[in-house]
Known about the structure:
530 residues; alpha/beta; Four Helix Bundle (Hemerythrin (Met), subunit A); Rossmann fold; 4 domains; globular; binds guanosine-5'-triphosphate; nucleotidyltransferase; diguanylate cyclase activity; Diguanylate_Cyclase
Amino acid sequence: xxAQSIPQTLLGLSQEMDHVGRQLLDRWDPELARRFTxxxxxxxxxxxxxxxxxxxxxxxxxxxxLRAWLKRRRAPDDILxxxxxxxxxxxxxxxxxxxxxxxxxVTLRQNHRLFLWAGEREVDHYLVEQLACFGYQxxxxxxxxxxxxxxxxxxxxxxxxxSDFMGEASLFPPGMPMPCPVLYAxxxxxxxxxxxxxxxxxxxxxAWPMQVRELLDALVLPQQQDRRNPLRVLxxxxxxxxxxxxxxxxxxxxxxxxxxxxxxxxxxxxxxxxPDLILMDMYMPECDGKELARIIRxxxxxxxxxxxxxxxxxxxxxxxxxxxxxxxxxxxxxxxxDELVVTVTTRARRYRxxxxxxxxxxxxxLLNHTHLFxxxxxxxxxxQRERVPLVMVMxxxxxxxxxxxxxxxxxxDEVLVNLARFLRERLRRSDLIGRYGGxxxxxxxxxxxxxxxxxxxxAIRGDFELLDQQSPRGRFRQTFSAGLCGAEGVTDVVALVQxxxxxxxxxxxxxxxxxxxxxxxxxxxLPPQP
Length: 530
Ligand SMILES: Nc1nc2c(ncn2[C@@H]2O[C@H](COP(=O)(O)OP(=O)(O)OP(=O)(O)O)[C@@H](O)[C@H]2O)c(=O)[nH]1
C-alpha cells in the first residue's frame, strides 16, 4: 500500500466502522459485533503501517471492550462508554495527525513587507514613504519574471496587483502557488472588474491610484486580524483525548483553545477564557450538551456566543430539537479537519465582529471609554496581585481645534483614525488602546516599567510627528502630548488615571509635543532620561 493511500484507507474503514457501530448501538447483535471486530482488526493493521499511535491505542481499547461483550453474549451495560470509544476511533481515523507550526508561518505573522506589481504605471513615492511610517516596506515590480522569482524566495505579507482587467496576459504560470494574499488595485470600479478580481483569487479590491489609508485597511484581512488576536475556542468534551485532538487541529490553524472535560467547570471557564465560540459534545456523563447549552443561555453568559455541538447523532429530528435551543450548529462526528476549522472560524469571526460593535468606538475601532475602564480595572487588579508593573498613558492631540477649523472636520477625523492605526501598529497585542473621548486616547501597558513606556511613547511621538496628514485642502502635520503614570504605589484606577491626566496637563503646559511621566521618587512629573 502506498504511503498516500493509508489515510484514505483509514477513512474508508472508519466510515464503515461508524456505520456498523451505529447499528450496534441501536440494537445489540452478536453477528454485527463480530463484523465490527473484524473491521477494527483491519483498521489496526493499516494504522500500524501508517504509524498512527494514538489511533492504535484507541482502537485497541475498543476491540478489547467488544471482545469482553462478545464473551458475555449480552448487550454492553455501558452504551455511553462504547459510543465514546467508537467516536474517538472514527475521529482519529478521519483526521490526519496535525503538523507542527512551521517557522515560515511564524515569520508571516510579523510580515510587513509588501510586493506591488505596477506594470508600466507610475507609483507615487509619497505612498511608499507613508507606508514606511506605518512600518511597511513596499517593493515595486515591473518585470513579471522578477516578481515570480521574488515570490519563490520570499513570503510577503501581501501582493498588490495593478490591473485594468482588459484581458492582459496572466502574470503567473498556471499552478504557481501563491504564498500570500493577493489584492487587486484598479482604475475600474465596475461589477465586471470586481468579479474578475474575485475569480482570480483576489482577497481585496482597491482604487488606483492607491490611498495609504485604503491600502492599510485592506491589509488587515480577517486572517491577519486573527493572527494579531487569535480566535478563542472553548472545547467541552469529556474525552480528554478527543478534546486534545480537536485542540491540536484548531491550534495548527492559529486558534487558541481551552479544554474542559467536566460540564460543571464550563461556566467558570467561559468567564475566565472569554471564548469566541463553544464547541461542545452532545453526550456527557454529568449532564448532556443540551442541558449545558440551556444553562449557558439562561445565565446570559457572553450573550449570543455561538455554541456548536459535536455528536455522532445523525437523526434529523434530534438535531432540529437541539437547534431550537438556540444552538448555532451541529457537526456530526467524525468531523474532518477542514469542516471543523471552517465552521469554527467563520462563526467565531462573525461573533467577534458583532461584539466589537458594542465595545469599540465606531470611528477608530479602538476600545470605547466604558470597555477600556472595565479592562483597566481587571489589568490593574492583576498587576497588583502578581506584583508586575503596569503603566497608564493619557494622550491628547495638540491644537486639534485648529485642524478642524483649517482643514475641516473630516480631515480631523482622518487624523484620529491615523493615530489609532499608528498606536495599534506600534504597541503589543497585550496593550489596551482606547479612545477616551474626543481627541483624547488612553493606553494601558501591562508588564511595562515607566522608563520603558516613556521611551516607547517618545519614539511613537517622534515618528507620528513626521507623518504627513492628507486632506483636500492640503497636507499638514500633527503632534500629540502624553502623560504617563506607573501603577506601583497607586491605590486604585481612579488615582492612576488622575495622575496620568495631570502629567498630560503638564506636557501641554510645557509647550506640547511632549511626553511627561509621573515619578514616585520625586513625587512629581519628571521625564526619565533616555
Ligand atoms: N474631527 C473631529 N474633531 C473632534 C472630535 N472630537 C473632538 N473633536 C474636536 O477636538 C477639539 C478639541 O479642542 P480643545 O479641547 O480646545 O483642544 P485642542 O485644540 O486640541 O488644544 P490642546 O488640547 O490644548 O492642545 C474640538 O475642536 C473638538 O471639536 C472628533 O471626533 N472628530
